[in-house]
Every structure is written in structure tokens, then in C-alpha cells.
Amino acid sequence: MNYVFTDTHCHFDFPPFSGHENESLALAAQAGVRRIIVPAVTADRFAQVLKLAHEHEPLFAALGLHPLYIAQHQDEHLELLAECLTARPGKLVAVGEIGLDLYMEEPQFDRQQTLLKQQLGLAKRHDLPVILHSRRSHDQLAAALRRADVPRRGVVHGFAGSLAQAQAFIRQGYYIGVGGTISYERAQKTRSVMAQLPLASLLLETDAPDMPLAGYQGQPNRPERAAEVFQALCQLRPEPPDEIAHCLQKNALSLFALER
Prior knowledge:
Blueprint: E1 5-7, H1 21-30, E2 33-39, H2 46-55, E3 59-63, H3 75-87, E4 92-101, H4 109-125, E5 130-135, H5 138-148, E6 154-156, H6 163-171, E7 175-178, H7 188-196, E8 202-204, H8 226-236, H9 241-255
Parallel strand pairs: 1-2, 2-3, 3-4, 4-5, 5-6, 6-7, 7-8
């Protein structure tokens, strides 16, 4: 059966997709990946992400200031984000990629938390969901989300935390992003978590060109491999593939307010 997927997290504004957009989208479509959410990571990429979404029907934009680039972000970048959200160009569907990261060197964590709070405030003001990055910071992120109370909620992408941490996000109404990590047999904790969570709380993603799947180590990840993430998930779940595909797609369309 031919399934239809949404890759809810793909950095399509980076190589190897830059300059090869049409062929990359054709490969994705052949695998059933009909929609792709492209989250920006720095202010200097906002215009390109919006341009890609405008020019290519399958692409949708998210704008945000990523915690890994905390040393680059300036006050004027937050102002630019606010201006873009106020303008609300077509196909802008989320604030992201934003979040917290305690894995990086020199995390400037207080500044990260301030920037996250400001961006969650913008998402709330503009009634948009958020796409969240979290490494070794799930508990702090969950606390920040409780304080912010973003009405449209969002997704904790590329999740690799514990079952209890995932459940804490789900209780607040957030989705959990399922990526290529589950294709690795050694990732037993993450595979076990994704097997146990409610299907209604999961979203499919690649994080391309990052997070390559098993068998593709050393190669850039690609959006068409969302179909392979789906296959890996089907091996872990008790539900039939038809039900899993339908629910994943329904979740994506609902969160990002995409037309069916």
C-alpha cells in the first residue's frame, strides 16, 4: 500500500538540498513524503526558509533561534523573528527550532532559557505551535513549557529521553518526534519508549541532513527516509501499518494546521 507521510523536521535549506531542491522533492514524493516542515535555526536563514516554502508546494516554514547557536543570536534577531511572525507569510506554520541544550560546550544556559521564554511568548501571541530541541534538558524544558502555556503546544523533536520524560511532555499536550535513532538496534531505550507511547502523540521526522539512519552512517540524511523511519516504527508497534501511517499523518496535519 502507498502511504502518505509528512517529514515534520527537515533542514531543507542546508546542503545537500540547496541547489537540488526539485530532484530532492521528487525523491521524497516517490517515497510518499508529500509535505516537509523546514525549521530555521538562525535569523540569517529566515528569508531562505520562507522563500523555499513560497516556491515549493511540499515545503512549509518554521522560524526560530536554535539554542546551539546561542553565541550568534542578538536582540535584533529576536526583533526580526517578531516582525516575521507579525507579517505571517503564507505557509509559516510554527515557531522553531527553539529549545534548550545542556550537551554543548559553553551552553550559556541562563541566556538559552531567556531566549526560549521570549520565543515561547511569541508563539503564544501569534497562536503558533513550537518545534522544540532538547538535549540533556528535558526536565528544564518541561518546566519552561508549563510556565509558558503555549495554546497550540508543539513537538519535542528527535526525542531520546526516558519514558517518564516523554509522558511529562505528552501530559502537557505536546507531541514527541520519532526519528532515525529507532533504526539502530543499540538504541534500546529510545526504541522501547517509542513502542510504548500513545500513537496519537507521535510525529514522523528525519532531521535531515542530520541523524542518519542505520545503514547510512556517514551520509547526509534525506527526507525520503521518513518512510524508513516509519518502517522501523512499525516493527516496534503493535498496531497495523495502515493505522500507524494514518495516525502519524493525522497528527502532523492537526499540529501544523495543514490541509488534508
